[in-house]
Amino acid sequence: MSEANIKQSRFKRLTNRYRMVIMNDHTYEEVVTFKLTRLAVYIVSCFLFVLLVGLTTALIVFTPLKYYIPGYGNQAERRELTRLKLRADEMEQMMQHREAYWENVRNVLSGKAELILDTAIISLPELEESTD
Fold this sequence. Notes:
By secondary structure, the protein is mainly α.
């Protein structure tokens, strides 16, 4: 079969009409009859899938159900957590500075402090005296 025949046969299979009949099991009476194609079934299935995903997403986003998702939380809790983290970092830095200060005070009182001059000797060129 050529490529065109294969594509045509696939399209033909998608567009062939089928009849779906729902019958009463006891009386064999036809209750409902549907005429369907495979293409219509695929399209309806895809539409229903997209609709269900959209509705589920909307239900989670626009209702309080989102707070039951682990790690989501509400905005006020997130702000409070950020504020507390910053405060804890500030306190930790203050403790480190205070500990360094008291360690320096202990070294000075015990005589273990090293004298460190943080000035450098600058050599300047000598100025010549002018005879003006």
